[in-house]
Amino acid sequence: MNIANKITKFLIEKKMVACVNIIPKIKSVYWWENKVCKSDEHLLIMKSVKSNFNKIVKEIEKIHPYKVPEIVCVDITANKNYLNWIKEYAK
What we know:
Number of strands: 2
Helix content: 25-40%
Structural class: alpha+beta
Distance between the termini: 26 Å
Largest sheet: 2 strands, antiparallel
């Protein structure tokens, strides 16, 4: 099982997130240890409540092989029913 699927499965089963979109084969170019690196990565877009952010970060850092995985929280504005659905499943 690849890392994206492992992270997704864990967070969904623990109800830390309501949904995860997995976007495969993102080309990343970045600085790491004083050199430019290129990687094929997966982008995970997770829907959760803000109060779960720190717990999600801790769990991803345990699973992810990178020393510094990218974990970003973005506030969203969405329709009320969608936000209620997130709150119902991401406890």
